[in-house]
Amino acid sequence: xxxxEAIIRKTKFEDVKxxxxxxxxxxxxxxxxxxxxxxxxxxIYRGVVYDTSYIERIMIILVVRDVNVERxxxxxxxxxxxxxxxxxxxxxxxxxDSIRIRTGExxxxxxxxxx
Amino acid sequence: xxxxEAIIRKTKFEDVKxxxxxxxxxxxxxxxxxxxxxxxxxxIYRGVVYDTSYIERIMIILVVRDVNVERxxxxxxxxxxxxxxxxxxxxxxxxxDSIRIRTGExxxxxxxxxx
Amino acid sequence: xxxxEAIIRKTKFEDVKxxxxxxxxxxxxxxxxxxxxxxxxxxIYRGVVYDTSYIERIMIILVVRDVNVERxxxxxxxxxxxxxxxxxxxxxxxxxDSIRIRTGExxxxxxxxxx
Lengths: 115, 115, 115
Ligand SMILES: Nc1ncnc2c1ncn2[C@@H]1O[C@H](COP(=O)(O)OP(=O)(O)OP(=O)(O)O)[C@@H](O)[C@H]1O
Ligand SMILES: Nc1ncnc2c1ncn2[C@@H]1O[C@H](COP(=O)(O)OP(=O)(O)OP(=O)(O)O)[C@@H](O)[C@H]1O
Ligand SMILES: Nc1ncnc2c1ncn2[C@@H]1O[C@H](COP(=O)(O)OP(=O)(O)OP(=O)(O)O)[C@@H](O)[C@H]1O
Ligand SMILES: [Mg+2]
Ligand SMILES: [Mg+2]
Ligand SMILES: [Mg+2]
What we know:
Chain A is α+β, with helices and mostly antiparallel strands. In chain A, 25% of the residues lie in helices and 31% in strands. Chain A has a single domain, classed as Alpha-Beta Plaits, CATH 3.30.70.120.
């Protein structure tokens, strides 16, 4: 099991959502986050100027079975990518266990919706 | 140390909170999240119909010492479980270090409230 | 790569933000969280009284290359520490991969802003 965290443009959320559902991906969760950084653009054109204001993004979190990691990452990249600075990031982190609260099932089976 | 992330019904939050405090669990953090998925129900009764609207849940995050993992998971399941579809999930992930900002303490001791 | 999660006082956010930018740290994300716990203070002065109301904090999340972990932790502690109860916590967790959505770059290079 892996956790995939994707920080994407708000304008791309609906496309990414559809792509994840079409890719037959299990549930995902999301919430609003803000980002702060030294903007690349400002550095190139104006030297060492910090952009200290924030930008708004959506954080998508989903835990998937190992077999679904690459499919999920590709679905997100396909829809979230514009090619312009600021498309966001995806992080992949380890998950040791997952529990479905309704049944108490643990491990991969807890992530799997039996069809 | 482990991080426990529990996505639960909003209606169960107060019960889970009380259970965690009674179980003598250290601090926890929480915030609102939204969930999107193919609902199990819809698939069974109406075929491949996606429910593309979101549902509201609360994400509880707490980092606990290894000795407290199962106690925490059981406290959450006990109170968050209704037996109906949609009770939520718990994820367990590894934590390499924890720091108490006030003292700079690191490791298990930083999670422990000396009584 | 490591993920650093810092739960800090809202009043310290601007100082921590400046310190991270000055420390030449890559992007970070943040959002509001609430915390619940048995307050240490209440226990000492009034016995076993639970403070069941929440406190507001900001969660900062940043994924950094291994070489930047300690620098980041120190920048946060330096600015977020008041010495009073309630300064918050920092958690360090493993990250297996990072992807820059714009380019598809993976690994450390995806975290690095070429100057
Ligand atoms: N290392 C990081 N840790 C936490 N959040 C990050 C990190 N990098 C980026 N983010 C989040 O992702 C958002 C978008 O980042 P952005 O797309 O500009 O990344 P980038 O690496 O600079 O890519 P690009 O070169 O295409 O601009 C930021 O606003 C921030 O919220
Ligand atoms: N794999 C996942 N990754 C991220 N979030 C998830 C995942 N699975 C569930 N969630 C979150 O948990 C919420 C509740 O999920 P839900 O309880 O329906 O899970 P379930 O496995 O379908 O269980 P049930 O069969 O009891 O319905 C979702 O709205 C979503 O926010
Ligand atoms: N183990 C934990 N898991 C998740 N969140 C935590 C944890 N510990 C603390 N927090 C979050 O950090 C916030 C501040 O915690 P706090 O600074 O009181 O920690 P503390 O260890 O009690 O330190 P102090 O002894 O200085 O008060 C809490 O409101 C909560 O949101
Ligand atoms: Mg950028
Ligand atoms: Mg369900
Ligand atoms: Mg405290």
